[in-house]
Automatic annotation (TrEMBL):
The keyword Hydrolase applies. Residues 10-33 have a biased composition (Low complexity). Keywords: Hydrolase, Protease, Serine protease. Belongs to the peptidase S1C family. This is Protease Do-like PDZ domain-containing protein. Residues 1-51, 89-110, 593-614 are annotated as: Disordered. Residues 34-48 have a biased composition (Pro residues). Coiled coil: none annotated. One of its GO terms (molecular function) is serine-type endopeptidase activity. Residues 446-590 form the Protease Do-like PDZ domain.
Length: 614
């Protein structure tokens, strides 16, 4: 005791020049003899499934939480008080913290126990869902090699990437299309296993960013469970995203709530489909993992918003079911339907009056129609589209969706099956008409993506001809919209095809040789004609060149540019140029296969005619 008094005195003397009074000494002695506070009552045991999941769920600040998912409390050994509270919370000073701990130790134990029991009762379903996901979610390892569109006869260096996936009924694995795009080899590994199993891609839909994998190994399926697809969650409902994001090798679980449900631009396929925005962190590697609500899948994680914090997106169940049903019916991905029209909102009252819309009518103005669509047969420019399948369309192009929500009517079109009939109500010249239109997927004039296939090309006299695609424009860098040739970029984004099979053929580059000296600055221009014949596509250009019977071969390009070659000399120069640049073939494999097929059909037709004649 004397030593304690001496230490206190030394401490006091180090902080003040005055000596300790007898009254102060008595107060210190009473403080030292004060009995310690009673220990808090023991906490109740964790409910079922909590032990494993508690180590997996993220440690986040306590807040009011929906029933299905819990919030794991912050550990005092890992976090300071100000770090695991609300953002910007101030840490409690050490002296005040000791007093508060004494007060909380006396009466806070019972309250904490009651809160944990209530939370555990609500969180059992969430932990059960996570336990179920542990035997359903897999890690996907992909080796891929993308084409080089500047040098279309060769690929870029192979690269390795990782993603997530989950098992659905029928021994199939759902993942994202961008996880296995341009794949050469795919492996999967289940949770808790060191073994990787080879997987085959059964179907892939790049527009909806979904893919189906299958694994032939029986050992892989031992102990695996399938997840059931649920429904679209409502706003503020909690979901848990399970997957294998970057930063570690083991499974990860993050939580969030639904913030928004609306059509969103899919970054991979550059299409507009329904998506669910959540505030859970979705990082590289999470792609393809399930977002679980209760004991069912609410969506598939696939992208986030760059430059923003905790804004992620999941593919909703209707899009997943539409993709899977199309594969089951046709054996392959069938695509998402479109009307093939562009519409303008009619929110301006003067615009509505000009087209004869009464105050009780709402709709959108048809401004462009794809010539290849069935709508081109029945719709006209300046029609007012009032209803789609009996659902009224508002002046801003939206339709009712669930409880007091609205969504663009494009969603109704995209959920229909290819070849299905849709009923349109339109206003034309002041009169209402009901029209039947067949919806189906439509291909743009300039393809948006070219995954899982080699680019087409044709080389003659050192001139490299290719069809214009957006992947070719992407080779100009991340800012390809500003760095790529302006005219080609505008055509790629705005022009519509006039007939089936049409392509924009361009001269991408000139491999220098004596035969083409002086033409080297004519690259990146569209080829309009060959010997006076308009070019329909690359295959047509190839056939026009190969079947040339004239002495000179003439190419008419954009900007009224012209290339003229001596045909026989150009043919001899082609083989010389290919050898110099180590190019294996002057024509891509797909064009060779098409030519072989056409030749086979012509030979078969000739044999039939001969047999009929005989």
């Amino acid at each position: 005791m004397l030593a304690s008094v001496r230490s206190l005195r030394r401490l006091s003397s180090s902080s003040s020049s005055s000596s300790l009074s007898p009254a102060s000494l008595r107060r210190l002695l009473l403080l030292l003899h004060r009995p310690p506070p009673p220990p808090p009552p023991p906490r109740p045991p964790l409910p079922p499934f909590q032990t494993l999941a508690r180590g997996l769920l993220p440690r986040i600040a306590a807040r009011p939480v929906p029933r299905r998912f819990s919030t794991a409390s912050c550990s005092s050994t890992l976090f300071r008080v100000g770090e695991c509270g609300a953002p910007g919370a101030t840490a409690i000073p050490e002296a005040e913290r000791g007093e508060e701990e004494e007060r909380e130790g006396e009466d806070g134990g019972e309250a904490d126990a009651a809160v944990e029991v209530a939370a555990g009762r609500y969180d059992t379903d969430a932990y059960a869902a996570v336990e179920l996901a542990l035997d359903s979610v897999v890690k996907v390892f992909t080796v891929s090699s993308s084409p080089n569109y500047f040098l279309p006869w060769q690929n870029k260096a192979q690269r390795e990437s990782m993603g997530s996936g989950f098992v659905i009924p029928g021994r199939r694995i759902v993942t994202n299309a961008h996880v296995i795009a341009d794949h050469t080899f795919v492996l999967v590994r289940k949770h808790g296993s060191p073994t990787k199993y080879k997987a085959e891609v059964q179907a892939v839909g790049h527009e909806c960013d979904l893919a189906l994998l299958k694994v032939d190994s029986e050992e892989f399926w031992d102990g695996m469970n399938s997840l059931e697809l649920g429904d679209i969650p409502f706003l503020q409902e909690a979901v848990a995203v399970v997957g294998y994001p970057q930063g570690g090798d083991n499974i990860s679980v993050t939580k969030g709530v639904v913030s928004r449900v609306e059509p969103t631009q899919y970054a991979h396929g550059a299409t507009q489909l329904m998506a669910i925005q959540i505030d859970a962190a979705i990082n590289p590697g999470n792609s393809g993992g399930p977002a679980i609500m209760g004991d069912k899948v609410a969506g598939v994680a696939f992208q986030n918003l760059s430059g923003a914090e905790n804004i992620g997106y999941i593919i909703p169940v209707p899009v997943i079911k539409r993709f899977i049903s199309g594969v089951e019916e046709s054996g392959k991905y069938s695509g998402f339907c479109t009307l093939g029209i562009s519409c303008q909102a009619t929110e301006n009252i003067q615009l509505r009056e000009c087209f004869g819309m009464k105050p009780d009518l709402t709709g959108v103005l048809v401004s462009r129609i794809n010539p290849l669509s069935d709508a081109h047969r029945v719709l006209k420019k300046d029609d007012i589209l009032l209803e789609f399948d009996g659902v009224p369309i508002a002046n801003d192009g939206t339709v009712p969706f669930r409880n007091r929500e609205r969504i663009t009517f494009d969603h109704l079109v995209s959920m229909k099956k290819p070849g299905e009939m849709a009923v349109l109500k339109v206003l034309r010249d002041g009169k209402e008409h009901e029209l039947n239109v067949t919806v189906r997927p439509l291909q743009p004039l300039v393809p948006v993506h070219q995954f899982d296939k080699l680019p087409s090309y044709y080389i003659f006299a050192g001139f490299v001809f290719i069809p214009l695609t957006q992947p070719y424009l992407h080779e100009f860098g991340e800012d390809w919209y500003n760095n790529s040739p302006r005219r080609l970029c505008e055509r790629a984004l705005r022009e519509l095809p006039k007939k089936a099979g049409e392509q924009l053929v361009i001269l991408s580059q000139v491999l220098m040789d004596d035969i083409n000296v002086g033409y080297e600055r004519l690259a990146e221009l569209q080829v309009k004609k060959v010997n006076g014949v308009e070019v329909e596509n690359l295959k047509h250009l190839c056939s026009l060149v190969e079947s040339c019977t004239e002495e000179n071969l003439r190419f008419d390009l954009d900007d009224e540019r012209v290339i003229v070659l001596k045909y026989q000399n150009a043919k001899l120069a082609t083989s010389r140029i290919l050898k110099r640049h180590r190019i294996p073939s002057a024509i891509s494999a797909d064009l060779v296969d098409e030519q072989a097929t056409d030749d086979g059909e012509e030979a078969t037709n000739g044999e039939i005619e001969a047999s009929c004649t005989s």
